[in-house]
Write a structure and sequence with these properties.
This protein is α+β, with helices and mostly antiparallel strands. It has three helices and six strands; from the N terminus they run ααβββαβββ. Strands 1, 2, 3, 4, 5 and 6 form a six-stranded antiparallel sheet that branches.
Amino acid sequence: VVQFQIPMRTKIEQLEKSLSEVQAKIQQNDGKIRKLDDLRTEVKNLQGRLVVLTEQLPPESEVSGLLRQIQNLVNQSGLVLKLWKPDRRRTHASGLYEEIPITLTLVGGYHNTATLFDRVGKLTRIVNILNIKIGSPKIGKSGNVDVEINCTAMTFAAVEKKVEAPQTVKK
């Protein structure tokens, strides 16, 4: 009788050890499953935030729409856009975005200029107005007092990095 108990006892101990390992793995995986819903929610929130941030700092290929936006704002503000000259793009030291300076020359009233700058500040896209130089006032053709404004509109574009798809390992 003793001969049969020892091998069976060893087998039972091995099975109990295996069972406890499987139960530990199940608990570990249950914890991961509980976190999965939280992670999915976080991914959804981050994707929404990415959309908002992309509007503020679009990829470099979407810069052309800014001209239309600025031209519309100039017209709405009652100014005349005499010069639109994009200067050389500069990559920021971080390498994450490019600075895109655009030289502008505007003609119109002082208050109209302030209205334009206010409207530019409300764009979803980041645009800074720098180096503002206001010329001497002159009486325009319509009898209004006009000033010539030279400034730089600095906008930014995200540098598009090409990401290679990870290679999958076949099992």
